[in-house]
Amino acid sequence: MATLNEQAQAQQIEVYAQRKRLSSITLARWQAWPGTDQAALFFLLQDLQCGENHLKDLLNWLEEIAARDERTIADILERRELRRARATPGSRNDKLKAVKVVLRKIRYPRLTRLEENVRQALKALDLGRTVQVSFPSDFEGDEVTATLTARNVHELQDGLSQLQQRLDDGRFQRVFDALDDV
Amino acid sequence: MYQPTEILIERGEEEAPVVQRALARLPELPVRIVEKDWEQEDTRPAGMDPFGAGKRRLFFTRQRARFLEHCPAGTPGLVCCNYLIVSLISNCPMDCSYCFLQDYLANNPTLKVFTNSDDLLDEVAQVVDRQPWRQFRIGTGELSDSLALDALLGFSADLVPFFAARKNVLLELKTKSDCIDNLLRLESHGRVVVSWSLTPPAIADAEEHGTAPFAERLRAARRVQQAGYKIGFHFDPLIEYPRWETDYRQALEQVFTSVDPRRVAWVSFGSLRITPPLRKVIRQRFPQTRLLSGEQVLCDDGKWRTFQALRVKMYRTLITQLNRLAPTVPVYMCMETAPVWQKVFGRAPGCDKDVARSLTAPNLGQEGTHRAGRRAEQLTA
Ligand code: SF4
Prior knowledge:
Number of helices of chain B: 15
Number of strands of chain A: 2
CATH topology of chain B: pyruvate-formate lyase- activating enzyme
Structural class of chain A: mainly alpha
Oligomer: heterodimer
Radius of gyration of chain B: 20 Å
CATH architecture of chain B: Alpha-Beta Horseshoe
Largest interface: A-B, 21 and 25 residues
Distance between the termini of chain A: 36 Å
Order of helices and strands of chain A: HHHHHHHHEEHH
Bound molecules: iron/sulfur cluster
Strand content of chain A: under 5%
Structural class of chain B: alpha/beta
Number of domains of chain B: 1
């Protein structure tokens, strides 16, 4: 990867920080990284142009992944799935969203897998819009809420029999199982 | 041994026994006599690490508030074990990267030693002796390590005989040190539980600065147990990292090949929990830490923890292993919700007193029918 000379890089980071009104704490955190890591993030930000809040998420996740995997941040940012996300067609926001989804997946591999499994189990319920199923945030707790919406007795009857069928064929059980499966 | 940079003594407390003991053991150190509120009026520059600097200033002062408090685990929504705490020391000579004191004592970091231990004992006697039908568990390891400074301060000689003489109370001394020499000279009559907080050696070495290495803690536990004390172990914080399963299994294995499980009063497990301000402090003071890299989420009580399904898996794995190694040892979880108890043990305690009784009764010679947790084969699959 191309690296800037150190002074020019430091200057460009300062300019970016001013333009995006980054707090001095966030800037200092970025500047405390080794030069190649600073540069790697700077190049990523050329595409994403994110401000304080998104940048803080990136700093947190990148530092935490680097510590866990004993890799440099520059190495992490070179991962194929991240490069692919950066190349997402569309607006900067689309790119930012894609990069954050991938980075969160690297940062929280089991939690995002659990989320995906729950999503699949919900999809398999195939309940349409009559019944909404929701979970406590980050799946803390043990309550699953199923909300049945009906405009008349027919719809209510319909919703109830759909629910009963999903209970009988084990599809609801798979939703509960997915919540514990790590 | 702990080496403070200076000793400060509140005016009027110079003759307190604990002050005299410390001065005799640290004769070389500069001593300043100060007013009780000197810390608020201290105008010296704070430096890069005021919390770390505070640990190295040793201040002897009177405790003016009550000593006896309820453990903060009694937070709504969490299952609590009705534990009482007393603190003769505020702040700790050790420096674990996850320690909550970094945030809790951020504005008040000087290591304080309270000179009026007799008031503490009076206060405890008032509560405990007036209710002989009730059983109490009281610990000193909330605002400091219970034993790390015992060679210097000798508080165990005040506490152990006092508690040894009472039938309805257990004292817990919680430590990550191997400072047990004073204890070996005292008789506990089974009313003092000395417990060690343990993490696997890889974590202890990297994150628990200034503590005794894992093997030394176990050696100390064995010696204390042989001297007639009951002992306990707290796998708290339970830390999730790539090798957690192998490392914690090995740690449990080592514990129960080192000590006699029949004289283990309890084992607890408690997931690492970090408030948002503490997270910031940890990042600043220990930028190399791997503690923040676990899959933690912000829970309802405002603390980051490993997400529920994963911590349930961790608890189940380790409690199953514990039950294989030491099937009769009472086990409980610290600062956990009823749904997590339900998933791990197949039931949540009916009330806080259930947990308390299951830990206190068997250790006060009144084998209760209650167990905090259930045996391995009863764990929900
Ligand atoms: S031993 Fe306990 S009180 Fe002392 S620094 Fe470690 S966690 Fe904090």
